[in-house]
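User: I'm writing a tutorial on reading structure tokens. Could you give me a worked example: one chain, its sequence, then its tokens, then a sentence or two explaining what the tokens reveal?
Assistant: Sure. Here is the example chain.
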Amino acid sequence: MPEWANVLPMTSTDLAEDAVIRRLRVILDELAEASAGSFSVEESEEEGWRVVSVAPLRRGALGFWWIHRGDVIFGLDPHGVRWELQPTAEDLDFLAAVVRSVVAGRVRAVFAPGRAEVTVTLADGTHEKQNNARAPVGCLPLPFWPRWGKHLDYLPYQ
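And here are its predicted structure tokens:
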């Protein structure tokens, strides 16, 4: 059983702010244990906003970031693809699962003008898809763009 399972309640109710901060710290600690020396971390806090940015050292691997102030916004570099998560155990477990998949290199992206779509394959084999469109080009219809766009498979951190 993971270390944090004894610390945090595993319910869908909102977690206390300190528990969310501890859980996010555990995610970084697990990353450090699994992939020591393969990434750099920048952490900052301004006006109550906690920002963490993880950059892999290996070329071809995918970085990620999160911003936390109550809710958690989790994003993948450089696409602008993000998830807006609640401070619940389920959402933080989801964030941890996506981080593990990013570190393992189980991410595929497709790009077209003004838009990106990322598919993350989780450890259980399920796929989480998220996309992003940037105005004005991303607002224009591009039929079947995920088929003909540029595809990119990311490498693992190690």
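What the tokens reveal: Residues 100 and 151 are 21 Å apart (CA to CA). The chain has a mean pLDDT of 87.
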